[in-house]
Design a protein that fits this description.
The chain has about 150 residues and is α+β, with helices and mostly antiparallel strands. Helix content is about 30%, strand content about 25%.
Length: about 150
């Protein structure tokens, strides 16, 4: 885990485009847990837009209004959103087929504005633990460079 967090920080100085470094970062995030899918999103004043993803298929909605979905809930509240069974949450906006659990960690700049999100998904209910929550929070800290 500490090695992956170190690698996430080190990507800030790596050569390549922002998109290439984001793709490398999202692969590392997915490797942290038993996540079936992981995505990194940019947050604009009106939209949430996928920057990079890793998993079996692309997101159904690569961009959507900032007020929609569990991502939108995380942006609005500036708090992590953990849903252990997405079929029980009306806010859920399908990312990929077969998702049962989803966790979103907002990336918040010093002013309090959400500038990005880290999204991980599982194909089973009750997939996320406090360890996962802490890991994503550490990833958000380690990857601030991606949104600055």
């Amino acid at each position: 885990m500490k090695d992956i967090l170190w690698q996430l920080r080190a990507l800030s100085g790596r050569a390549g485009t922002r998109e290439q470094r984001a793709q490398a970062a999202v692969r590392l995030v997915r490797a942290l847990g038993s996540y079936r899918w992981a995505g990194l999103y940019d947050v604009t004043p009106s939209e949430i837009v996928v920057l990079a993803w890793d998993g079996p298929e692309p997101p159904c909605y690569p961009r959507f209004p900032v007020s929609q979905g569990l991502n939108g809930a995380a942006v609005t509240s500036r708090q992590r959103v953990v849903v252990q069974d997405v079929t029980a949450d009306v806010r859920y906006l399908t990312t990929i087929s077969g998702t049962r659990g989803e966790m979103i960690q907002p990336v918040v700049e010093s002013s309090g504005r959400v500038i990005g999100t880290i999204n991980v998904e599982a194909d089973r209910v009750n997939a996320f633990t406090a360890v996962d929550e802490n890991l994503l929070a550490e990833c958000a800290e380690a990857m601030q460079w991606l949104w600055m």
